[in-house]
Amino acid sequence: MKVTYDKKVMHSPLAVLRKAGYSAFTDPQSGENSFVLRLTGEFYPRFHLYVDHKGDEVLFSLHLDQKKPSYGSNHAHSGEYEGPMIDKEMRRIDGWVNHVEPSSS
Predict the structure, then answer these.
(1) H or E stretch covering 91
(2) Beta-ladder partners of 76
(3) pTM above 0.90, yes or no
(4) How far apart are CA 55 and CA 66, in angstroms?
(5) I want to staple 64 with a disulfide (CB 3.0 to 4.6 A). Which of 18, 29, 80, 96 is the partner?
(6) pLDDT tens digit string along 72-82?
(7) Rg of the Cα atoms in the chain
(8) 35 burial class (0-12, 13-18, 19+ CB within 10 angstroms)?
(9) Taking a C-beta distance cutoff of 8 angstroms, is the pair 86, 64 a contact?
(10) Is 44 within 8 Å of 63 (Cβ atoms)?
(11) Integer Cα distance of 2 and 52 in angstroms
């Protein structure tokens, strides 16, 4: 699921995601930065969110990783990109957007 915010509304994506319980994550394979929220004490399942800045907008791209990707000859990824759990989590994150003050960054 992808949601776009105006930077005037989204003062600090990092502050919003920290308040929502997300941790910064750097993929050891690709070096790509993102954020994760574990649903159990294990590494999976987890919500996985990418942040992209484009002009005056901030794009949140959220999915649910059910298990570790099984890369190799095929690129099987067990991510869910839509559904009730994704909708509910994005609404929860969205609730934090209006509660994080610019000075929280």
Answers:
(1) helix 84-97
(2) 70
(3) no
(4) 32
(5) 80
(6) 544 455 689 99
(7) 14
(8) buried
(9) yes
(10) no
(11) 10
